[in-house]
Amino acid sequence: MSATLSAYEGIVGSAVIRQLRRLGEKLKGTRIVHVNSTREGGGVAEILEWMTPLMTELGLNASWEVIHGSGRFFEVTKSIHNGLQGHSVPITGKDWKVYEDVNARNFERLRPALEEADIVVVHDPQPAPLLKLCERRKGKWIWRAHIDISRPFRPAWKVLRTFVEKYDASIFSMAEFAQPLPHPQYLVPPSIDPLSEKNRDMSPEEIEAVRNGFGLDPSRPLLVQISRFDRFKDPVGVIEAYRMVRKVAKVQLVLAGGGASDDPEGTAILEEVMEAAGSDPDIHVLLLPPDSHRTVNALQRLATIILQKSTREGFGLTVTEGMWKGKPVIGGDVGGIRLQVVPHHTGFLVNTPEGAAHRIRYLLHHQEGIERMGTTAREFVRENFLLTRHIREYLTLMLVTLRDPRANFIQV
Amino acid sequence: MTPFEVKDCALLGRMSGLPPAFNLRELRERIAVCGENVLFHHFCETTLRGTFDNPDYRNDFAVWSKLYLGDRVVAERLGILDPYSFPSLGELRAATLDVLDERLGESTMIPWARPGDEFFFLESTTIVFDAGIRFTQPSRLAAFIRKMTNGSVYYHFLEARRRPPLGVDDFTAWLKEDEEANRPYIQALASVDFYFHTLPHLRHELGRVLTEAKVSK
Known about the structure:
The complex is a heterodimer. By secondary structure, chain A is of the alpha/beta class. Chain A folds into 2 domains: 5-191 and 386-403, Glycogen Phosphorylase B (Rossmann fold); 204-384, Rossmann fold, CATH 3.40.50. Helices cover 46% and strands 15% of the residues of chain A. Chain A has helices at 9-12, 14-25, 43-57, 71-84, 93-116, 130-133, 154-164, 204-213, 235-246, 266-277, 293-302, 317-324, 337-340, 353-365, 367-384, 387-403, and strands at 31-36, 61-66, 119-123, 140-145, 169-172, 185-187, 222-226, 252-258, 283-288, 305-308, 329-332, 347-350, 409-411. In chain A, strands 2-1-3-4-5-6 form a 6-stranded parallel β-sheet, with helices on both faces. Chain A is globular and about 65 Å long. Chain A starts with 8 loop residues before the first helix and ends with a strand. In chain A, 52% of the residues are buried. Chain B has 2 domains: 4-9 and 128-216, no CATH class; 18-120, no CATH class. Chain B has 10 helices and 2 strands; from the N terminus they run βαααααβααααα. In chain B, strands 1-2 form a two-stranded antiparallel sheet. The radius of gyration of chain B is 19 Å and the shape is elongated.
């Protein structure tokens, strides 16, 4: 159950909430439909979980629909996803047919809501063909890309582009992710919910219970990477970095993540990680159920340093979460991690396991730096990456889209 | 005094459609032809964007030159350009091009950014709306500013300088309705070197100088 807007006043201030209510008044009754491909697991579902009720509270008529697909469909969309992030993946004509057929079946179910909506926001590639199918649409359609498609595998993008280019606008998390398209491309970084189970304050007893439950030693530094078991998150590279640090410091490592129903590759990657971890008792590889938000919250709070050594990344909400817990982050020098990790201020950006090991050792030798960067990181998130900023930008986007998508200045 | 009507604004960034710049020469070529809205965005609207709150420089061109071209000389020269000190964006553009031409003339090699680090030219749509707050007493200005959003502070104190009367913030323009009586407040606002403040710091600073002016008044 999401919190109400007034619950955020203590975190962001009443002026920010008042601002959202004023913007919401301008969109009262507007029918917004969000569409994505999973109800749980991954950052998109987490965002929609709080965004939909808060938009409703602001007076919009907001709903969230999920497309359903077979295992084969999600294998294809995972290939598309990997292709958009630059992997050379074969996607056959038959695969694209599966992709379109599943969307066509979902469209029949969603048709009334999609046809009547004032604004439809389609998240990521999985449901992108819905626009082509919705010939009697009345509203504006926006494609929201949460992933990094700055250097896509061209054959994958070439086909997907035919579905996306007909949208009225698209949204990217960063300018670097955008591709040339014949409509306005807006930039909206994602955000976290500071009152969600994954981010809200926890009692020391509850945190300790998680520490004890996983057999973590309170007297030794703890490195934590929270993310799906996904090649782009480089969990094996994290283990390499850990082993380099272990030569000089008795650190512990937690690699924890859940699966997502739209990610069939996770099991294979998890096996690779288990093999790399071997029998080291100080490497804790945890496959967590999708509802383990409190556990993730506690692990991030227990961490001495948060790692997110991705080689490709959309935005990296786990970085934001770690920073919100007042921890420095050592992150891959890619994607949205660059927006958040400012070297020597909120953590370090690295390109290799060696770089990660070096920065871990640096921080372990500069305890005051851990404190200082952690404090800066938390305030940075408060100002820039909490859901209140995110909602404000969506409301602004909707007003702009409904009035004049290319205007520079609009008075409402 | 007429009531001061507090406005608020929200910014939405978008791609400008210009190709990205990979080196200093391309940066110069794009700045020469970009729309004024693009120039304004990279010089002035950074304060409203989700970027790190303590960069070395306050405009995007200087930050990029330092971080991704590795050219600290041109970064320093661009970084000191105060967009609010130019009577028009055309003159700001001319000054920027002067800096870049001077550096290109000095350089034996054109500095390049690696792929992925290119400069993306952006612009924004600003939505302005009524915050629903009115006040009439100048003595309460500090208290109201302290409660304003970043958007209100930006709109009334920074963005206002683009609107007639040019170069004047909305608070000062309002206080000038009774210039003699409000002189301490007007002087206090004029004393703020606002360009290097983030919006939260600027709000704090405006509140501070107006409170001190009130005491001394």
